Amino acid sequence: MRRIVFFILAILVLISCRSPEKELKTELQTNESILYTKEKALEIVKTGFNAGDGYAEVWIRDYNTFIELAAQVYPAEELKKNLLVFFRMQGEDGNIIDGFTPRKDTIIREDFIYTDREPRYAGHKNTVETDQESSLVQAVYKYVQATGDRSVLDEEIAGKTVTERLDWAMEFLKEQRYSEEFGLLWGATTVDWGDVQPEHSWGVDLDENTHRAIDVYDNAMMIIALNNLVEMVPDLADKWAPFCEQLSANSRKHLWDDEKQQFIPHIYIEGSPFPDEFDESAIYYFGGTAVAIEAGLLSKEEIKASLNEMISRVEQAGAASIGLTLYPVYPDGFFQNPGMKAYSYQNGGDWTWFGARMVQQLVANGFLSEAYEQLLPMTERVLENEGFYEWYTVKNEPRGSGTFRGSAGVLYTAITNLEKSVNK
């Protein structure tokens, strides 16, 4: 009898030793591409704060995605200096710039932004976007979480504290980018999270040809920002919590297609810029879906369904990872900017910058083995190409900046979050 009991116990121990959790832990500790990716991410973030070798500027939407990584190698004061530049260059209506570059490196131009509060830098803003303000709130939140330094909230700039300026930035979106009809934020028509509208050869500024549209990315970013703001400054809960709940409810009501189990690309306020016969509803937006999950807009069942749909569309496109921006793509000629042809840049390029955010959300919602499976194509190409490229073609060929810090930041966070989860 004792032999039988011992035999059963031995089997149970063997099963325990070979559990998926322990196997995943071992994989994370030994996988060459993951170890290389972590080491390389720390290496490149030590070299600066601009978006990458193809960009001179420090962009807030990028800084928001690698400030946690930067906190591993820089003192808090250095990180705070960059954040404060955005507040010194805040517009008179509360808007936040996209990015800044050393003023000595720029010729005085009409499309740059200058202020006596920050004479060292010139700023710029792609006005087609509606995510600069929410990106800054999120970046400050991540800074506080990573460093424990709440003093940044009390820093005073031109008579307003950072807390007041964060609140003001949220007010800008509510007052200047809000549709009363739908109870949601609007921006220009862009591809998912992108910053290029179809009506212009460059396409980064609102103009008389812009077709205003509502999408899930902008609204999810605002929801995350408001939740972050209320957590940092509980006194603002009465003001912003109800508005945040309204954005969440209206995002589900107007943007989520329950039958298709996906978010629709756009709601148009004054009509679409695309031909009437074009069925935009067939397009699946990957990045906006990932950010919507972070904003708490989907159930666990819907998250799993979304992942399955992403995997299916990646296979249909012949792409390498769930960093694929969308599928199917907008046909050639739909965007005047030549960089937005089919399967190029934001129109069907494969961006780790957003794919790894989906991995982060899989981890956060308990899909650990799925997270690991979707992580590997991204870390493997970091190893193969010896760096973090801005985006990849559907053939997995690297394109754009070769030291894209946003990709390094989100990948590093995805890996470390997964490690923490399997080590619990």
UniProtKB/TrEMBL annotation:
GO biological process: carbohydrate metabolic process
Leader sequence residues: none
SUPFAM superfamilies: Six-hairpin glycosidases (SSF48208)
UniProt-listed Gene3D superfamilies: 1.50.10.10
Chain ranges passing through the membrane: none
Domain of life: Bacteria
Protein name as annotated: Glycosyl hydrolase 36 catalytic domain-containing protein
Source organism of this protein record: Draconibacterium sediminis
